[in-house]
Write a structure and sequence with these properties.
By secondary structure, this protein is α+β, with helices and mostly antiparallel strands. It is built from 6 helices and 11 strands. Strands 1, 2, 3, 6, 7, 8, 9, 10 and 11 form a 9-stranded mixed beta sheet that branches. Helix 3 runs antiparallel to helix 5. The longest helix is centred in the C-terminal third of the chain and has 14 residues.
Amino acid sequence: MKIKSVLAFEGGPLIVAMALLLACSKKDGDTEVNRAAASAPGGGAVTLSATADANNAFKGTARVVQPVSWTSNDTANVPLLEEKNVLAAMLASFTPEQLTNAKIATTFTDVLLTTGENSYLPCIRQGVKVGMLSPASQAKVLAAIKPWLSNLDTAAAALLLRTYAGELPDTYVTYANNKSAVTGNAGLFFTTSTDYVRIDGPGVWIELVCQPGAAPAKQVRYHAVFCDHPRDYAAL
């Protein structure tokens, strides 16, 4: 079973039934995002892919936003803005040494965890260990995770957030490219194609990458994914 929608759906439901419930019970504002996307410059779109296998094991959510912002009917549309901003604030909170340790040389043209056949998870976590960061930076990591849970019901989101908070010491953050980025300036992250970030913990998995845009051509688009290692993707 495959669900494909332009709803602004975020978060990694624990079971397919929850994914279906959320997808079928979106607020009017989410439907408006759907209509607005169709009128974005160059026919851009906000898309979601959610996949379940034959055993109804939920396999996470992925979103593509292009263009990253547009105005429709005098309303500004900025899907993924909060998610991108808190990820940038997280990286900007690192010291120069931590940024160096977190960075990897790989060039990413897409996220690793896709709904296609080439999807995979690295065997070894990369980057800087969150448990080695300052309490302030650890709080920024948790803040970067929180928006991805926003479409779960309150109890489920709170439970997962507590779980991820307890797992922070064994969670890793890595990023790539972002050549102009420096400590203390969140605005310099995620501005160019192949700029990339990943949060990889015992449970949480989040990726965001900037890709070449087509609408307009000079603007990047975001491709992002969130899932949970033991609860999504058949417990990969």
